[in-house]
């Protein structure tokens, strides 16, 4: 059979038949680099990550130590050369606390995003692929969750589950997974009708394999973008819960907790009047982090949206 | 001849839509013998692809195989479990699709997709999969296969993509290859290459091929036998040369006449078949082709002809057949292929249809009939919209209507 089935001709060999391949990812990365805001966001995030990592091995003072600052009779120490972010009313070093706060924020943000990915993607793909009554059940659950007020649900879950890093991530995930599930369901719905899925089905691909190797990679772009938007939401919710005294508890420090005075009995208002730096620095750190994630997420979305191609 | 490898018996497939049951395939039977190339031709929407999808069990909700058998090697594919059917797909019966770009997953490498088809069936040892991918690409004559196997589909040209699709189809050495419009999305020179490739694969590997197309030229180039489908039914079947030389169904005849020819008069307009295929929710009574047939007779409006043998392995479902049309209706000389042109038999029509016809045909004798039919005129006078339309185009008829009404 070789006689009939020889290649077209040797003149093709060595010739350039295709341009250098530019994959979707490399193309997206290139466009991401051109987006100044997204780039600034990325640099800030890298900075925060480095700070958080350093915090594991070294902080200027022990964040828990109540002898870090000179003892003050009434007020907390304002920022000084020895304590750039000042001290809290219990004479602990604020910078050291905030370095640990960065760890908590990132862990909660990324951890929540991972839980949401796991739950949202699997439920969304199942609903979109199986359709029928399975889709009906999952969609109803999604709608029910949408109907419950976010913070209320997080609070209730938090009360039920009890304090703890993992529990707070679960509580926040329960309020944010629906967007992801809905997005993935829609993506799967549309992708499963494409001809290449029909073609894969015609070549005998099994159901699970179809989902994992044929449908999932095609939905990956929007999924990643959605995940980057979930991180800041999780960080904000955690900070808010901690600010209310319902989130991360001492001896761990979270930005929200620090801003509320770390549960030392002062009200936020009196704290703002007597030692504004305790409120301002964690709030600024939180705001910048949220902003950075949003800029970066926006940049990612633009970079991987083919319609934005320039 | 040996036993058929694939035998479709009285297959009916319907889509249950909100508007009603779309009978996409009705009572279709045909056989495919080992090593044979069978063509299925017909216009868009004639049920060709649905037939193919039915064979592979790929018809999805709201579609359903209503009745019939699909015998593949003593197994009825309409009865086996989903898993058994999956085993058959891509291993024993492979399918290639019309548009190779949309039929390939854009985010997966060509090589990966070829391997996928093999991995789905464990027919080939794991270690052999990667080299086999390159071998397959070489077999379908993709140059520089070692390097190009790492490419993504968008880096392939249309013809190369279709070759890669065929490579995927061939990967498990299937016994039957169903090619659904494999050349439609390609330009003519590439079409020829792909057809040549299919022909070689058929000859060298002994693979049976079902070629689905609306292009009779493609059928002539590749197939030994052809099945002509219209409105979900087989209207004619037989050896290719015979069908081309001596088509018996007016639909086949019209299809062949509408092929552009190199040797035809350049001034002559391309012939087409008037009208569209019928609505498959409510097909016309009698023969489904009757609204478009130039040679229809009264019987065509009431009774649906069955597929009957007419000798030499040719089957046709027609009350008239072209032999009679040539002998009695002057088919050889007619240039007017409008409905009922040669027979003069017109279908019973309702009023608005008559008016629509008047606008387009404006044949004097129709106007005459209308003017002389008091019942029709009576009805017409009660349809202001129809009267208005008629008044614009044929004031003379309106005059007659008024005349007639004042007579009463």
The helix/strand class of chain B is alpha/beta
Calculate the terminal CA-CA distance of chain A, rounded to whole Å.
48 Å
The biggest beta sheet of chain A, please?
Answer: none
Radius of gyration of chain B: 25 Å
Largest sheet of chain B: 8 strands, mixed
Number of continuous helical runs of chain A: 11
Instruction: Look at the structure and give the mean pLDDT of chain B.
Output: 82
Largest interface: chains, residues each? A-B, 34 and 40 residues
Spatially, the strands of the biggest sheet of chain B line up as: 6-7-8-3-9-10-12-11
What's the CATH topology label of the largest domain in chain B? Rossmann fold
Structural domain tally of chain B: 3
CATH superfamily of the largest domain in chain B: P-loop containing nucleotide triphosphate hydrolases
| Strand tally of chain B | 12
Name some characteristics of this structure.
heterodimer; A: 310 residues; mainly alpha; MetI-like fold; disordered N terminus; B: 408 residues; alpha/beta; 8-stranded mixed sheet; 37% helix; elongated
């Amino acid at each position: 059979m070789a006689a009939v089935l020889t290649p077209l001709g040797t003149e093709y060999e060595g010739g350039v038949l295709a341009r250098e391949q530019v994959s979707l990812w490399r193309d997206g990365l290139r466009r991401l680099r051109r987006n100044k805001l997204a780039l600034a966001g990325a640099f800030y995030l890298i900075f925060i990550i480095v700070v958080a990592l350093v915090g594991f091995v070294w902080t200027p003072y022990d964040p828990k130590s109540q002898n870090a600052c000179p003892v003050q009779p009434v007020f907390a120490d304002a920022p000084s050369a020895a304590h750039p972010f000042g001290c809290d009313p219990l004479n602990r070093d604020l910078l050291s606390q905030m370095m640990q706060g960065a760890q908590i924020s990132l862990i909660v943000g990324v951890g929540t995003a991972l839980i949401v990915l796991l739950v949202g993607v699997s439920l969304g793909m199942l609903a979109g692929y199986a359709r029928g009554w399975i889709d009906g059940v999952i969609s109803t659950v999604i709608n029910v969750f949408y109907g419950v007020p976010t913070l209320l649900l997080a609070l209730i879950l938090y009360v039920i589950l009890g304090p703890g890093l993992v529990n707070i991530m679960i509580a926040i995930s329960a309020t944010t997974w629906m967007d992801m599930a809905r997005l993935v369901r829609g993506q799967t719905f549309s992708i499963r009708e494409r001809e290449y899925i029909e073609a894969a089905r015609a070549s005998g691909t099994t159901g699970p394999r179809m989902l994992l190797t044929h449908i999932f990679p095609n939905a990956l772009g929007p999924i990643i973008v959605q995940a980057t938007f979930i991180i800041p939401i999780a960080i904000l919710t955690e900070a808010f819960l901690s600010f209310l005294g319902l989130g991360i508890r001492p001896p761990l420090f979270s930005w929200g907790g620090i801003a509320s005075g770390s549960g030392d009995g002062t009200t936020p208002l009196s704290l703002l009047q007597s030692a504004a730096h305790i409120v301002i620095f964690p709030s600024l750190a939180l705001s910048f982090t949220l902003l950075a994630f949003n800029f970066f997420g926006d940049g990612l979305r633009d970079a991987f949206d083919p319609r934005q191609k320039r | 001849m040996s036993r058929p490898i694939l035998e479709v018996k009285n297959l009916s497939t319907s889509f249950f839509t909100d508007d009603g049951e779309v009978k996409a395939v009705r009572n279709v039977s045909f056989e495919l013998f080992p090593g044979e190339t069978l063509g299925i031709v017909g216009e868009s929407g004639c049920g060709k692809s649905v037939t193919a999808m039915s064979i592979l069990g790929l018809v999805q909700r709201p579609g359903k195989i209503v009745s019939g058998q699909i015998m593949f090697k003593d197994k009825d594919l309409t009865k086996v479990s989903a898993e058994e059917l999956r085993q058959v797909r891509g291993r024993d019966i492979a399918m290639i699709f019309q548009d190779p770009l949309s039929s390939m997953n854009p985010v997966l490498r060509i090589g990966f997709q070829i391997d996928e088809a093999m991995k789905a069936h464990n027919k080939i040892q794991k270690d052999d999969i990667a080299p086999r991918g390159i071998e397959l690409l070489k077999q379908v004559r993709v140059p520089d296969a070692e390097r190009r196997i790492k490419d993504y589909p968008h880096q392939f040209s249309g013809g190369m993509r279709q070759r890669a699709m065929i490579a995927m189809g061939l990967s498990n050495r299937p016994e039957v290859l169903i090619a659904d419009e494999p050349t439609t999305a390609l330009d003519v020179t590439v079409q020829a290459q792909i057809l040549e490739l299919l022909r070689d694969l058929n000859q060298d590997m002994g693979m049976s091929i079902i070629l689905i197309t609306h292009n009779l030229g493609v059928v002539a180039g590749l197939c030994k036998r052809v099945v002509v489908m219209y409105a979900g039914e087989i209207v004619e079947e037989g050896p290719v040369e015979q069908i081309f030389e001596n088509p018996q169904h007016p639909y086949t005849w019209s299809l062949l006449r509408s092929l552009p020819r190199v040797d035809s008069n350049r001034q002559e307009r391309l012939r087409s078949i008037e009208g569209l295929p019928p609505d498959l929710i409510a097909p016309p009574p009698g023969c489904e082709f009757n609204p478009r047939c130039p040679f229809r007779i009264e019987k065509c409006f009431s009774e649906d002809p069955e597929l009957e043998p007419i000798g030499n392995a040719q089957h046709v479902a027609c009350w008239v057949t072209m032999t009679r049309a040539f002998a009695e209706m002057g088919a050889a000389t007619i240039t007017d292929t409008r409905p009922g042109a040669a027979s003069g038999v017109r279908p019973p029509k309702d009023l608005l249809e008559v008016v629509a016809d008047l606008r387009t045909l404006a044949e004097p004798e129709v106007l005459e009939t209308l003017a002389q039919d008091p019942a029709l005129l009576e009805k017409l006078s009660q349809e202001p919209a129809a009267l208005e339309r008629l008044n614009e185009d044929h004031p003379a008829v309106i005059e007659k209507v008024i005349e007639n009404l004042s007579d009463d």
